[in-house]
């Protein structure tokens, strides 16, 4: 009487015999990806960090009173941030200033 294998064993036997080489490559690739994602966050940040502002073109002017383009406007907003700025609700919040105090004579 022939031996009847359970479905799982039959599937595993046929899978490993047909795709044995590819299966090893897939497992090694997935292991590499998981290790890469895991260990990329383990590096320390550099102490000096530069701000890189990428423009599409050179600005025509950096004078806030005469700029007309989006590129110049973005640069002027970044360069000339005030002591305070407004949040999305219109309330004054610290911009460059760490804090401020109101005079009692107001």
Explain how this protein is built:
- With 106 residues, this protein is mainly alpha-helical.
- It is 41% helix and 6% strand.
- The protein is built from two helices and two strands; from the N terminus they run H-H-E-E.
- The protein has helices at 7-39, 70-79, and strands at residues 84-86, 92-94.
- A two-stranded antiparallel ribbon has the order 1-2.
- A hairpin with a 5-residue loop joins strand 1 and strand 2 (92-94).
- The longest helix has 33 residues, at 7-39.
- It is elongated, with a radius of gyration of 31 Å.
- It starts with 6 loop residues before the first helix and ends in a 12-residue tail after the last strand.
Concise summary:
The protein is mainly alpha-helical and 106 residues long.
Can you give the helix content as a percent range? 40-55%
**Largest sheet at a glance?**
2 strands, antiparallel
Amino-to-carboxy terminus distance: 103 Å
Could you spell the SSE succession in H and E letters? HHEE
The rounded Rg comes to 31 Å
Helix count equals 2
Task: Summarize the helices and strands and which ones pair or pack.
Elements: H1 7-39, H2 70-79, E1 84-86, E2 92-94
Antiparallel strand pairs: 1-2
């Amino acid at each position: 009487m022939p031996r009847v294998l359970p479905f799982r064993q039959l599937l595993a036997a046929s899978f490993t015999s047909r795709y044995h080489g590819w299966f090893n490559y897939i497992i090694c690739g997935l292991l590499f990806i998981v290790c890469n994602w895991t260990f990329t966050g383990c590096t320390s940040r550099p102490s000096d960090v530069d701000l890189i502002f990428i423009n599409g073109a050179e600005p025509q002017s950096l004078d806030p009173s005469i700029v007309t383009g989006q590129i110049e406007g973005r640069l002027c907003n970044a360069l000339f941030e005030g002591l305070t700025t407004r949040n999305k609700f219109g309330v004054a919040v610290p911009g460059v200033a760490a804090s401020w105090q109101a005079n009692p004579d107001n």
